[in-house]
């Protein structure tokens, strides 16, 4: 079993790559140095390099992302917007597009690491929310476009990579009253990679954070 994990050296992606390795997958954990995913050419080159190394592809995990920086809407620049939409949305599209022939051949799967921000309006993270919302739609678009050979699923993490000192505040945002960890996302990846009758849907790995937020907005 052969997997490419974009963002494979990040806080979440590195743990996903490690867990897949433990599950006997051969993994290419791609870093930013291996390809600029904000360009279609960079995405194609990254996929080709992984296919050359692995001899094919059974699983693609899109975990790369940029632009998670708080900033008021009035202060967002074009560069901020391009950074957020680049590797996150554009990269997800073109990496998946490039990997599709290999995944069709192996009847493989794509897992897109989204964010609860795809489903909630965060004024201080406008570009990030937009990029993640685009990813969430791509989960559904690719599920239809690549069926029946390829399954496509999303994972929407909540507070799983929390900055030191923010644990108590972020834990209060969840129904479970605690934060998660990158290992929780990796567990979800392993589950979806083997869930042969699941496609076109997103699994929230957020301790109930999204539901808690919806409840707080209720009149």
Explain how this protein is built.
With 219 residues, the protein is α/β, with parallel strands linked by helices. Helices cover 46% and strands 13% of the residues. It is built from seven helices and six strands. Strands 2-1-3-4-5-6 form a six-stranded parallel sheet, with helices on both faces. It starts with a strand and ends with a helix. The model has no long low-confidence stretch (mean pLDDT 92).
Shape: globular
Q: What is the C-alpha radius of gyration, as a whole number of Å? A: 17 Å
**Multimeric status of the protein:** single chain
Strand runs, count: 6
Structural class: alpha/beta
Major beta sheet, specifics? 6 strands, parallel
Q: Count the helices. How many?
A: 7
């Amino acid at each position: 079993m052969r997997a490419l994990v974009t963002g494979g050296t990040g806080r979440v992606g590195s743990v996903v790559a490690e867990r897949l390795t433990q599950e006997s997958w051969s993994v290419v954990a791609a870093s930013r140095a291996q390809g600029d995913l904000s360009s279609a050419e960079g995405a194609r080159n990254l996929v080709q390099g992984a296919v050359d190394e692995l001899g094919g592809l059974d699983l693609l995990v899109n975990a790369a992302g940029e632009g998670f920086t708080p900033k008021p809407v009035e202060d967002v620049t074009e560069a901020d917007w391009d950074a957020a939409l680049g590797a996150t949305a554009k990269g997800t599209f073109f990496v998946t597009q490039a990997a599709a022939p290999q995944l069709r051949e192996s009847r493989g799967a794509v897992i897109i690491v989204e964010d609860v921000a795809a489903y909630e309006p965060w004024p201080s993270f406008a570009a990030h929310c937009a990029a993640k919302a685009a990813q969430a739609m791509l989960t559904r678009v690719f599920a239809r476009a690549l069926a029946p050979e390829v399954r496509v699923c999303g994972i929407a993490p909540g507070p799983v990579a929390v900055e030191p000192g923010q644990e108590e505040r972020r834990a209060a945002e969840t129904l479970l009253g605690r934060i998660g960890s990158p290992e929780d996302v990796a567990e979800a990846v392993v589950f979806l990679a083997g869930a042969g009758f699941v496609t076109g849907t997103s699994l929230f790995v957020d301790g109930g954070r999204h539901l808690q937020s919806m409840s707080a907005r209720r009149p």
